[in-house]
Amino acid sequence: MLTVSKEVLSKLAGIGTATIHEAQGQIGAMDNVIKPIDPARRLIGRALTVDTRPADNLMIHYALTKAQPGDVLVVDAKGFTEAGPWGDILTLAAQKAGLAGLVIDGMVRDADVIVELGFPVFCRGLSIKGTNKAQPGRVNEAILCGGVTVNPGDVVVGDRDGVVVVAAERAGEVLAASEAREAKEETMRADLNAGKTTVELLGLEPLLKKIGAS
Question: How do strand 107-108 and strand 125-126 relate by DSSP bridges?
Fold first, then answer.
């Protein structure tokens, strides 16, 4: 499994998910319903992947025994919305293991306590319904989460806008493209403040003329 350097992770941590998504060719964005329960929280880390059955969290408990500090637990819970396989106890266990956060294609519960603990959690929503601990699954294999294929070790970035996944082998390339995009947008802001329009800056005049905009 390819390991992304701490330097690359640190730099990507300061870049918005929308910028990263655009910079890597508009790929890697999870379904827009997967959002942080605390909008002020960001996350970044290496993916520790979990495939689990709906309404069962046995494999989540097992995955925590395999976690390394800085990992982000990425769980394919099949988008099931009528159970919360993650709550305050698992949150505390994850913090003790040094996890950087959770992304789950499913629901969670005990939201108030999770927010108080300061642990970044991204999910489809909240459900107070409990789960079983009986079904087999997979840990540290490729999964589909929020419509995106996630491999172990991929970079997962989350902020208020959503979650984006960067393939580990492309992390350096995507960082460079993201930084270039940020620099370009900073120049655009300066030009806008100087009185130019977005139509001018984006070269939209020919297109607008073609469609007969007046």
Answer: parallel
Domains annotated on the chain, with CATH? 6-175 (3.50.30.40)
Both tokens of 95, joined, read 């913090």
Per-residue burial over 46-76, b = 16 or more CB atoms within 10 Å of its CB, e = otherwise: bbbbbbbbbbbbbbbeebbeebeeebbbbbb
Cα–Cα nearest to 57, from 80, 32, 34: 80
Cα 22 versus chain centre, distance: 14
Q: 159 forms bridges with which residues in the sheet?
A: 162
Q: Which of 30, 82, 34, 88 is nearest to 56 (CA)?
A: 82
pLDDT tens across 81-129, in order? Answer: 999 999 999 999 999 999 999 999 999 999 999 999 999 999 999 999 9
Report how far residue 175's alpha carbon sits from residue 177's, in angstroms, rounded to the nearest whole number: 5
- Specify whether the CB–CB gap between 45 and 8 falls below 8 A: no
Distance of CA 98 to the CA centre of its chain: 18
Q: Do 152 and 25 meet the contact criterion of CB atoms below 8 Å apart? A: no
- How many angstroms separate the CA atoms of 24 and 173, rounded? 8
